[in-house]
Amino acid sequence: MKNTSSSLPGSSVSYYLGRICWKLFRALLMICLAFVILYPILYMVSMAFRTVEDVYSPQVVWIPNQLTLHNIVFTAEVLDYWKLLGRTIFISGTSTLAQIFVCSMVGYGLGRFQNNGFSVVIGVLLLTIIVPQQIIALPTYFNFQSVDFFGIIQLITGEPSKLTLLGTPFLTAILALFGQGIRSGLIILIFRQAYHSMPKELEDAAMVDGSGFLGTYFKIMVPNAVNVILVCFLFTLVWYWNDYYITSIYIGNFPTLAVRIAGIRPAFQVATGNAAFDPYYMVVVEQAACLMMILPVLVLYIFTQKYFTESIEKTGLVG
After folding, report:
1. Percentage, residues of the chain above pLDDT 90
2. Least buried of 7, 52, 164, 238, by fewest C-beta within 10 Å?
3. Does the global pTM surpass 0.85?
């Protein structure tokens, strides 16, 4: 019998040609997506190091004719960069640590202990994610404007409390400690899913060895959730680093880099003594300020991207 297989002369050519076309299409698609994602950063870097002449030159598109650090130095002086950088690191770091600690413990409780009111707690938790921060900002502001500790101060002194937490650099950390930090509900759900998926035998073995709930959590659960903690820590740190809304409302007396950059145009006009500041050069110094703001986060990502991507794969956080 003749071999009636589909190994015709043109079939293998069509197969390899199809594979080559598919690989070229994927490569082109990835290049286009990478350009869309990296375009803001490339534009920022290109503008931050341009001279005034390059700003007005139609021949300069991406690469300046002459690189200069004057924009970076001038922007650092106007922003008081190093002072604000230290303040931003302090506020973002304390708030992130407080949020990770609280959300991890709450997620552990929701993931390992369930009772009749579990669905109600999950529903309230989802409400904290669904309800926008702007809706609860006003009552939260008034609560921190006059802290009375359930009326105890007024009961002792006979007058309304004059204690206020507004304008203190610890306020965002206090919100995080009470589960009201930036996207705390989402972080709690991530931890809840991570702890819920861990084998119950780990807890049973710890209980047999005489460990209590807290001992089991710190000695068994936390070491097994290092990947989740790392991912949530980096996400939360970036959220607090870029936050403008909460910081400007509650701790306006201690502005961070994000708050200062939001009002950078008047600051530049005051620094130059020119109310009619050159609008084209304003774009350059704004891009320099944004580059200086994201630079610490980029450096952090460069040193942690290997562990970050591995943790993303192990925790299953996609999309």
Report:
1. 13
2. 7
3. no
